[in-house]
Structure formats: structure tokens, C-alpha cells
Amino acid sequence: MNISAIRNIGTIIGIGAGIVAILKGIAELGTNDNYLQFFRELGGWIWILLGVLVVASVVVLIIFRRPKYDFQILNTRVTLSLLDPGGEAAEVVKEVEMKFMRTGMVEHIDRFSTDGMIDEDSWKIDKGVLQQDEPEFKGTYKVVSKFPETSRKGEIFKKRISCRFLFSFSDEEEFWILEPFYPIDNYILEINFPDDRLAKTCHAFIISPLSSETIKNFQPELVNGGKKVVFEMTKPKLSQRIKIAWTW
């Protein structure tokens, strides 16, 4: 059971408890017996007040609760272009459309991983400021893009980041890893191959330290006889690492 389900159950229980308290208070006020009528009426009003407070508290929490994530990624499109048959150079373009879930966000982090290296002079970003392109740890580069203005909740922001991978896709079987750090509505990976070395096969599966599991509903496709591989997935789980692999 995830956090969202637990929160929803708690909300239902809270509202239900408040309604029960209100009904109990009304029942107390409706008693016809005159014995200790004053105390029964007092008790009825206390129950009604308690019920109103419970329901009001739950409603306030629903309205003003902090969103679970700072961003909702509406669309991500990654275009990987292999520039030569030896896989020595590849151009990567990442286009992101996101919605701010909170006001006051000033930056967003993207991560690029490679077995080779990234040309430090190739980083480009069309919106925001590229703050860091140093390796976060071996093989992984953290890119912090600063927003031109402080964000407002509900605002839509689009950005485009590109760089050049070096010596990263030279093996016969290669892959790309999708690892969501924020909720993603739709993710597209497009891989373009050189004319003299086309893709032969492709598949996608979930990877974990102990096992791998094929994704039945979302598999990459060979396009134009292997000139291109396209993979599209909706709402990938944050707990999953997805490997899109191909042979060429």
C-alpha cells in the first residue's frame, strides 16, 4: 500500500469520525427523558462541536497539504543520435515539459549516465542557467538548471538540454537507462543510427540488483528497417530502473 492510499484512507476515517460525532450529538439532543436533561444537551453540543472540528481539520489538511513532489514531469523526450558506426560520438538532446507543484522552486536537476565520458564543451541549455556539469560520481553527471524566475505553483516550464557523449556506445549490445526521479506522465526515447550500422534488435526490461523483468505493455520498436528505435512509456514507476537495450 503506497503513501497516497494511506492518506486517502486516513481522510475517509477522519471525515467519517466527524460525521459520527455530529450524529451522536444530534441524538443526544433529541432525548425525551427529562432526567439530567441539561447534561445530556451539553454532551450533545460537545459531540457536535467535536465532529465539526474533526471534519474542518481534515478539510484544511486536504486543501493546504504540501505536495509530495516539487515537480510533475508532463513530457520527456530524449533523442540519442549515434554519429558514427563505431559509437565513438553520440548527440543527446533531452526536452522536458514540467509543471511546478509548489511556488518558489528555483532549480531542477537532470542526470546523465555513461560508461564513457561527456564532452565538457558540448553542454547547452535553452532556458535557465547550466550551473554544474561536473561528474557527481563515476559515470554520472548532474546538471543543475537554474530557472530564470522563481516558479509559481501550476506554472508550466519547458527546457531543452543537449550534450555529446564520447566512447559510450561502441559495443555490439548497448543500452539506455530510464530512472525517474519525479513522476512522469509520458516518456519517449528515440535512437537514431548511422546508415552503415543499423539496429538489429531491441527490447526493454525492468532491472534490479537481483533480477530483470520484461515490460509487457511497453516495448521499443525498430523503425525504417533499423534506422531508428523508438520507445514510449506512460507513467513509469519511481521505484523502477528501466533498461532499453539494442543490438547493432
Structural account:
- There is one protein chain.
- The protein is built from two helices and 16 strands.
- The chain has helices at residues 3-29, 37-64, and strands at 71-82, 89-100, 107-113, 117-118, 124-125, 129-130, 135-137, 140-146, 156-166, 173-178, 184-192, 201-207, 212-214, 221-223, 228-234, 241-247.
- The strands form three sheets. Strands 1, 2, 4, 5, 9, 11, 14 and 15 form an eight-stranded mixed β-sheet that branches. Strands 3, 6, 7 and 8 form a four-stranded antiparallel β-sheet that branches. A four-stranded antiparallel β-sheet has the order 10-16-12-13, with no helix packed on it.
- The longest helix has 28 residues, at 37-64.
- The radius of gyration is 27 Å and the shape is elongated.
- The mean pLDDT is 80.
Describe the structure in brief.
With 248 residues, the chain is an alpha+beta fold. The protein has two helices and 16 strands.
